[in-house]
Amino acid sequence: MKTPGAAVVGRFAPSPTGDLHFGSLVAALASYCNAKAVDGRWLLRIDDLDTPRVVAGADRRILDQLMAFGLVPDGPIMYQSERSAAYRDAIDALVARGHAFPCGCTRREAQAGRIGPEGPIYPGTCRHGLPRGRSARSIRLRVPEETIAVDDRIQGRVAQHLAGEVGDFVIRRADGITAYQLATVVDDAAQGVTEVVRGADLLSSSPRQRYLQTCLELPMTAYLHTPVVVDDHNEKLGKRSGALSLTGQDPRALVKACLGLLGQSEVSDTGPGGVSAMVAQAAAHWDVSRIPTYPTINRNPVGGMPTSAPDPTVPDWPNNGN
């Protein structure tokens, strides 16, 4: 049900490392419905910074697949590969304000510290200046000795003591590529995103991104993290784990399966308008309070990956890659 409020801007930010799969469709549909439920705008960003993993043509196939579901962005598509100047300006500002510093440590040296909840915590070797004879390899954010908390609309309060649990984290890698945390914050602000809807596997990134927003004096986004779809081995569905492409699947059944996993009301698949009408109906009845609060959910309770015949009203999706 639509409720009045400030204009909501949502976004979906896939990486073009292959075609969309069922897990990414759940995230895309959730972000779209969450914005459209309150007459908001929905934007698309292609997170193509990690160039060694980018698959040629994958961005076009992703866009075609989204549009086949009626998930059409309300503005220009942003490509992170075209945003290097914005990231450089942000990093320069952080260094100038004392929030970031150059680091000359190798990967092995940086991981020599104690182990935290998310892996080795940077030992602070270069925090107060590069050791003699060292040159900068990466740039790190200087984190405070305090707890940063984010209130997620589904998962509740997420608190992280940055120094004790994460340490000074990389914002520009040794290979010159801008790190995910910084690029995401800078681009969300540039696109005017007000609410980030994504999978709960990224929940722990939220306090770091909130602190980056504070350091860069950027607007604070709201967060909504949906359960991550996993397989029978509790592995996240993803391109790296061999998750099936959406190509050749019945889009109507896929939409129903996604909505079922998100706890949403059943939508009709028999009326005119095809799958786009189903998505519009889902947005009109979107109810965040019905989304499961646990971080992962198995795809099998709603029948797994549907394999019935494709909807003739939806164009064929391109085959993967070659």
From TrEMBL:
Residues 299-322 are annotated as: Disordered. Its EC number is 6.1.1.-. This is Glutamyl-Q tRNA(Asp) synthetase. Gene3D superfamilies: HUPs. Binds 1 zinc ion per subunit. PANTHER family: GLUTAMATE--TRNA LIGASE (PTHR43311), GLUTAMYL-Q TRNA(ASP) SYNTHETASE (PTHR43311:SF1). Catalyzes the tRNA-independent activation of glutamate in presence of ATP and the subsequent transfer of glutamate onto a tRNA(Asp). Glutamate is transferred on the 2-amino-5-(4,5-dihydroxy-2-cyclopenten-1-yl) moiety of the queuosine in the wobble position of the QUC anticodon. The lineage of its organism: Bacteria, Pseudomonadati, Pseudomonadota, Gammaproteobacteria, Salinisphaerales. It is an enzyme of class 6 (ligase). Keywords: Aminoacyl-tRNA synthetase, ATP-binding, Ligase, Metal-binding, Nucleotide-binding, Protein biosynthesis, Zinc. Belongs to the class-I aminoacyl-tRNA synthetase family. GluQ subfamily. Zn(2+) binds at C103, C105, Y122, C126. The keyword Zinc applies. The keyword Disulfide bond does not apply. L-glutamate binds at R11, F12, A13, P14, S15, D47, Y180, R198. GO terms for biological process: glutamyl-tRNA aminoacylation; tRNA modification. Residues 8-246 form the Glutamyl/glutaminyl-tRNA synthetase class Ib catalytic domain. NCBIfam families: PRK05710.1-3, queuosine_YadB. InterPro entries: Glu-Q_tRNA(Asp)_Synthase, Glu/Gln-tRNA-synth, Glu/Gln-tRNA-synth_Ib_cat-dom, GluQ/Sye, Rossmann-like_a/b/a_fold. It comes from the Bacteria. ATP binds at K239. A motif ('HIGH' region) lies at residues 14-24. One of its GO terms (molecular function) is glutamate-tRNA ligase activity. Its cofactor is Zn(2+). A motif ('KMSKS' region) lies at residues 236-240. It holds the Pfam family tRNA-synt_1c.
